[in-house]
Amino acid sequence: MEFVVEPLNGPIGREIVGLDIERDIAPATAEALREAWLEHGVLVFKGIGTSPEVQLRLSRCFGELEPHPIPKFRHPDYPELILLTNQGGSAGPVYDFDGTAICGRIPWHTDLAFTTTPNAGALLHMIRKTDDGGQTGWLDMALAYDELDDAAKAEIEGLEAVYLFRAGLEEMRFNNPGGTRLTPRNDSYPDFPPVVNPLVWTHPETGRKILNVNTLNIERILGMDEDRSDALIERLISHAMQPQFQYIHDWANNDMVLWDNRRTLHRAAGHPVDQIRIVHRTTIKGTVAMGRLLEAEAVA
Ligand SMILES: [Fe+2]
User: Fold this and answer.
1) Cα(86) to centroid(ligand 1), Å
2) Does the pLDDT value for residue 299 go beyond 80?
Protein backbone atom coordinates (compact mmCIF):
# COMPACT_ATOMS: atom_id res chain seq x y z
CA MET A 1 0.00 0.00 0.00
CA GLU A 2 1.26 3.46 -0.98
CA PHE A 3 -0.33 5.20 2.00
CA VAL A 4 -1.86 4.52 5.39
CA VAL A 5 -5.23 5.65 6.73
CA GLU A 6 -5.08 7.22 10.20
CA PRO A 7 -7.81 8.51 12.52
CA LEU A 8 -8.20 12.29 12.92
CA ASN A 9 -8.66 14.21 16.14
CA GLY A 10 -12.40 13.90 15.63
CA PRO A 11 -14.93 11.11 15.20
CA ILE A 12 -15.34 11.31 11.41
CA GLY A 13 -13.03 11.43 8.40
CA ARG A 14 -9.51 10.05 8.11
CA GLU A 15 -6.00 11.34 7.44
CA ILE A 16 -4.04 9.89 4.52
CA VAL A 17 -0.39 9.57 5.54
CA GLY A 18 2.68 8.70 3.47
CA LEU A 19 1.22 9.33 0.01
CA ASP A 20 3.71 10.57 -2.61
CA ILE A 21 1.93 12.84 -5.07
CA GLU A 22 5.05 14.53 -6.43
CA ARG A 23 5.04 11.88 -9.16
CA ASP A 24 2.30 10.03 -11.02
CA ILE A 25 -0.18 8.11 -8.86
CA ALA A 26 -0.39 4.42 -9.81
CA PRO A 27 -3.88 3.28 -10.92
CA ALA A 28 -4.16 0.82 -8.00
CA THR A 29 -3.27 3.60 -5.54
CA ALA A 30 -5.81 5.93 -7.13
CA GLU A 31 -8.48 3.25 -6.79
CA ALA A 32 -7.56 2.66 -3.13
CA LEU A 33 -7.81 6.41 -2.47
CA ARG A 34 -11.21 6.47 -4.12
CA GLU A 35 -12.40 3.60 -1.93
CA ALA A 36 -11.13 5.40 1.19
CA TRP A 37 -13.03 8.53 0.14
CA LEU A 38 -16.27 6.60 -0.26
CA GLU A 39 -15.74 4.69 2.99
CA HIS A 40 -14.85 7.66 5.20
CA GLY A 41 -16.48 10.71 3.53
CA VAL A 42 -13.66 13.15 4.40
CA LEU A 43 -9.94 12.68 3.67
CA VAL A 44 -7.25 15.00 5.02
CA PHE A 45 -3.82 15.27 3.35
CA LYS A 46 -1.58 17.35 5.61
CA GLY A 47 1.22 19.45 4.15
CA ILE A 48 1.57 17.75 0.74
CA GLY A 49 -0.21 20.36 -1.39
CA THR A 50 2.96 21.87 -2.82
CA SER A 51 1.69 23.00 -6.24
CA PRO A 52 -1.37 23.27 -8.51
CA GLU A 53 -0.08 20.23 -10.39
CA VAL A 54 -0.15 17.92 -7.34
CA GLN A 55 -3.64 19.14 -6.42
CA LEU A 56 -4.91 18.36 -9.92
CA ARG A 57 -3.11 15.00 -9.97
CA LEU A 58 -4.70 13.98 -6.67
CA SER A 59 -8.15 15.35 -7.53
CA ARG A 60 -8.31 13.35 -10.77
CA CYS A 61 -8.21 10.11 -8.75
CA PHE A 62 -11.81 10.76 -7.69
CA GLY A 63 -13.56 11.57 -10.96
CA GLU A 64 -13.94 14.12 -13.71
CA LEU A 65 -13.19 17.69 -12.64
CA GLU A 66 -15.65 20.50 -13.21
CA PRO A 67 -14.43 24.05 -13.89
CA HIS A 68 -16.36 26.82 -12.13
CA PRO A 69 -19.31 27.93 -14.30
CA ILE A 70 -18.33 31.61 -13.86
CA PRO A 71 -14.97 32.25 -15.59
CA LYS A 72 -13.81 34.97 -13.17
CA PHE A 73 -13.53 32.37 -10.39
CA ARG A 74 -11.24 30.13 -12.45
CA HIS A 75 -7.50 30.23 -11.81
CA PRO A 76 -6.01 32.12 -14.78
CA ASP A 77 -3.42 29.41 -15.50
CA TYR A 78 -5.33 26.30 -14.40
CA PRO A 79 -9.01 26.47 -15.44
CA GLU A 80 -9.97 23.43 -13.35
CA LEU A 81 -8.79 25.23 -10.19
CA ILE A 82 -11.19 27.62 -8.50
CA LEU A 83 -9.57 30.57 -6.78
CA LEU A 84 -11.16 31.40 -3.42
CA THR A 85 -9.59 34.52 -1.97
CA ASN A 86 -10.30 37.94 -0.57
CA GLN A 87 -7.07 39.26 -2.07
CA GLY A 88 -8.10 42.29 -4.11
CA GLY A 89 -11.47 42.42 -2.34
CA SER A 90 -13.90 39.82 -1.06
CA ALA A 91 -15.99 38.25 -3.83
CA GLY A 92 -18.65 37.22 -1.31
CA PRO A 93 -20.59 39.34 1.18
CA VAL A 94 -19.00 40.74 4.35
CA TYR A 95 -20.87 40.65 7.66
CA ASP A 96 -20.31 42.25 11.02
CA PHE A 97 -20.17 39.60 13.73
CA ASP A 98 -19.64 41.01 17.22
CA GLY A 99 -17.80 44.06 15.90
CA THR A 100 -15.49 42.20 13.46
CA ALA A 101 -15.93 42.36 9.68
CA ILE A 102 -15.96 38.72 8.54
CA CYS A 103 -15.89 37.35 4.98
CA GLY A 104 -16.36 33.79 3.79
CA ARG A 105 -18.65 32.57 6.55
CA ILE A 106 -20.95 29.88 5.08
CA PRO A 107 -23.05 27.78 7.51
CA TRP A 108 -23.57 24.01 7.14
CA HIS A 109 -24.44 23.11 3.56
CA THR A 110 -23.79 20.81 0.65
CA ASP A 111 -22.62 22.40 -2.56
CA LEU A 112 -25.18 22.87 -5.32
CA ALA A 113 -28.07 21.73 -3.08
CA PHE A 114 -30.20 24.31 -4.88
CA THR A 115 -29.75 22.37 -8.15
CA THR A 116 -30.98 18.89 -9.02
CA THR A 117 -27.49 17.39 -9.33
CA PRO A 118 -24.97 18.07 -6.57
CA ASN A 119 -21.26 17.71 -7.28
CA ALA A 120 -19.78 14.41 -6.15
CA GLY A 121 -17.06 16.03 -4.10
CA ALA A 122 -14.54 18.82 -3.78
CA LEU A 123 -11.00 19.32 -2.58
CA LEU A 124 -9.69 22.43 -0.84
CA HIS A 125 -5.99 23.30 -0.89
CA MET A 126 -4.77 25.92 1.56
CA ILE A 127 -2.25 28.24 -0.08
CA ARG A 128 -2.26 31.03 2.51
CA LYS A 129 -4.04 30.67 5.82
CA THR A 130 -5.12 33.51 8.07
CA ASP A 131 -3.94 34.05 11.62
CA ASP A 132 -7.53 34.19 12.87
CA GLY A 133 -10.56 32.10 11.91
CA GLY A 134 -10.72 30.26 8.62
CA GLN A 135 -11.49 26.77 9.94
CA THR A 136 -13.60 24.42 7.82
CA GLY A 137 -15.94 21.82 9.32
CA TRP A 138 -17.58 18.67 8.01
CA LEU A 139 -20.62 16.74 9.24
CA ASP A 140 -21.22 13.08 8.38
CA MET A 141 -24.90 12.86 7.43
CA ALA A 142 -24.73 9.08 6.85
CA LEU A 143 -23.76 8.66 10.50
CA ALA A 144 -26.37 11.25 11.53
CA TYR A 145 -29.01 9.20 9.70
CA ASP A 146 -27.84 5.95 11.30
CA GLU A 147 -28.13 7.54 14.75
CA LEU A 148 -31.76 8.64 14.31
CA ASP A 149 -34.16 6.45 16.27
CA ASP A 150 -36.48 4.11 14.39
CA ALA A 151 -39.53 6.36 14.90
CA ALA A 152 -37.73 9.34 13.35
CA LYS A 153 -36.48 7.23 10.44
CA ALA A 154 -40.04 6.04 9.75
CA GLU A 155 -41.40 9.60 10.09
CA ILE A 156 -39.11 11.06 7.42
CA GLU A 157 -38.97 8.16 4.96
CA GLY A 158 -40.36 9.29 1.60
CA LEU A 159 -40.59 13.00 2.55
CA GLU A 160 -39.18 15.65 0.27
CA ALA A 161 -37.96 19.18 0.91
CA VAL A 162 -37.89 22.34 -1.17
CA TYR A 163 -34.44 23.87 -1.52
CA LEU A 164 -33.70 27.44 -2.62
CA PHE A 165 -30.61 29.34 -3.70
CA ARG A 166 -29.52 31.90 -1.08
CA ALA A 167 -27.82 35.14 -2.06
CA GLY A 168 -26.92 35.87 1.57
CA LEU A 169 -27.03 34.58 5.13
CA GLU A 170 -30.00 36.84 5.88
CA GLU A 171 -32.15 34.65 3.61
CA MET A 172 -31.60 31.49 5.69
CA ARG A 173 -34.73 30.19 7.42
CA PHE A 174 -32.98 27.75 9.81
CA ASN A 175 -29.88 28.15 11.98
CA ASN A 176 -29.36 31.66 10.70
CA PRO A 177 -25.98 32.76 12.13
CA GLY A 178 -27.03 36.42 12.46
CA GLY A 179 -24.53 39.15 11.67
CA THR A 180 -25.14 42.46 9.95
CA ARG A 181 -24.49 42.70 6.25
CA LEU A 182 -21.84 45.32 5.43
CA THR A 183 -21.71 44.94 1.65
CA PRO A 184 -24.61 45.48 -0.78
CA ARG A 185 -26.57 42.52 -2.07
CA ASN A 186 -25.18 41.20 -5.34
CA ASP A 187 -28.08 41.02 -7.76
CA SER A 188 -26.13 39.50 -10.61
CA TYR A 189 -26.76 35.86 -9.64
CA PRO A 190 -28.52 33.66 -12.18
CA ASP A 191 -32.15 32.83 -11.43
CA PHE A 192 -32.10 29.34 -9.87
CA PRO A 193 -35.60 27.79 -9.82
CA PRO A 194 -36.71 25.95 -6.63
CA VAL A 195 -35.82 22.26 -6.49
CA VAL A 196 -37.26 19.33 -4.55
CA ASN A 197 -34.84 16.88 -2.93
CA PRO A 198 -35.53 13.76 -0.85
CA LEU A 199 -35.08 14.22 2.91
CA VAL A 200 -33.45 10.80 3.00
CA TRP A 201 -31.22 10.06 0.03
CA THR A 202 -29.53 6.81 -0.88
CA HIS A 203 -25.90 7.41 -1.77
CA PRO A 204 -25.48 6.46 -5.44
CA GLU A 205 -22.15 4.67 -4.91
CA THR A 206 -22.23 3.25 -1.38
CA GLY A 207 -25.96 2.60 -0.97
CA ARG A 208 -25.90 4.22 2.50
CA LYS A 209 -28.84 6.36 3.56
CA ILE A 210 -28.06 10.05 4.01
CA LEU A 211 -30.01 12.54 6.13
CA ASN A 212 -30.36 15.30 3.55
CA VAL A 213 -30.93 18.45 5.61
CA ASN A 214 -28.94 21.50 4.56
CA THR A 215 -29.21 24.54 6.83
CA LEU A 216 -28.30 27.06 4.14
CA ASN A 217 -30.81 26.11 1.45
CA ILE A 218 -33.69 24.14 2.95
CA GLU A 219 -37.02 25.99 2.85
CA ARG A 220 -39.86 23.60 3.77
CA ILE A 221 -41.11 20.03 3.62
CA LEU A 222 -43.21 19.48 0.52
CA GLY A 223 -46.93 19.05 1.24
CA MET A 224 -46.70 19.74 4.99
CA ASP A 225 -48.16 22.74 6.81
CA GLU A 226 -45.58 25.35 7.79
CA ASP A 227 -45.62 24.86 11.57
CA ARG A 228 -45.14 21.09 11.35
CA SER A 229 -42.59 21.47 8.58
CA ASP A 230 -40.53 24.04 10.51
CA ALA A 231 -40.63 21.95 13.70
CA LEU A 232 -39.47 18.81 11.88
CA ILE A 233 -36.64 20.60 10.07
CA GLU A 234 -35.48 22.23 13.32
CA ARG A 235 -35.52 18.86 15.09
CA LEU A 236 -33.51 17.16 12.33
CA ILE A 237 -30.99 20.01 12.18
CA SER A 238 -30.40 19.99 15.93
CA HIS A 239 -29.86 16.22 15.76
CA ALA A 240 -27.37 16.52 12.89
CA MET A 241 -25.37 19.39 14.45
CA GLN A 242 -24.16 17.22 17.33
CA PRO A 243 -20.37 17.21 17.83
CA GLN A 244 -20.06 13.43 17.44
CA PHE A 245 -20.86 13.79 13.74
CA GLN A 246 -18.33 16.61 13.13
CA TYR A 247 -14.73 17.16 12.17
CA ILE A 248 -13.29 20.72 12.26
CA HIS A 249 -10.05 21.31 10.36
CA ASP A 250 -7.63 23.94 11.59
CA TRP A 251 -5.61 24.63 8.47
CA ALA A 252 -1.88 24.75 7.91
CA ASN A 253 -0.51 25.95 4.59
CA ASN A 254 -0.26 23.13 1.98
CA ASP A 255 -3.00 21.07 3.66
CA MET A 256 -5.64 19.59 1.38
CA VAL A 257 -9.04 18.20 2.40
CA LEU A 258 -11.34 16.19 0.13
CA TRP A 259 -14.99 15.47 0.90
CA ASP A 260 -17.90 13.48 -0.45
CA ASN A 261 -20.51 16.17 -1.15
CA ARG A 262 -23.32 13.64 -1.38
CA ARG A 263 -22.73 12.43 2.17
CA THR A 264 -21.36 15.33 4.20
CA LEU A 265 -22.27 18.90 5.04
CA HIS A 266 -19.49 21.44 5.36
CA ARG A 267 -19.20 24.90 6.79
CA ALA A 268 -16.70 27.74 6.54
CA ALA A 269 -16.07 29.75 9.70
CA GLY A 270 -14.93 32.77 7.68
CA HIS A 271 -12.18 35.12 8.75
CA PRO A 272 -11.52 38.84 9.34
CA VAL A 273 -11.77 40.60 5.99
CA ASP A 274 -8.51 42.48 6.61
CA GLN A 275 -6.54 39.19 6.59
CA ILE A 276 -5.72 37.62 3.21
CA ARG A 277 -6.65 33.98 2.64
CA ILE A 278 -5.93 32.06 -0.58
CA VAL A 279 -7.46 28.66 -1.31
CA HIS A 280 -7.46 26.59 -4.47
CA ARG A 281 -10.43 24.32 -4.91
CA THR A 282 -11.20 21.51 -7.33
CA THR A 283 -14.70 20.14 -7.88
CA ILE A 284 -15.46 16.49 -8.65
CA LYS A 285 -18.35 16.52 -11.11
CA GLY A 286 -21.68 15.04 -10.04
CA THR A 287 -23.15 12.43 -12.34
CA VAL A 288 -26.35 11.42 -10.50
CA ALA A 289 -29.41 13.62 -10.06
CA MET A 290 -30.77 13.81 -6.52
CA GLY A 291 -33.94 15.85 -7.03
CA ARG A 292 -36.10 17.59 -9.57
CA LEU A 293 -37.33 21.08 -10.36
CA LEU A 294 -40.38 22.08 -8.28
CA GLU A 295 -42.03 23.60 -11.36
CA ALA A 296 -41.79 20.32 -13.27
CA GLU A 297 -43.61 18.66 -10.38
CA ALA A 298 -46.36 21.31 -10.35
CA VAL A 299 -46.96 20.99 -14.07
CA ALA A 300 -46.96 17.17 -14.11
FE1 LIG B 1 -19.42 24.85 -0.02
Assistant:
1) 16
2) no
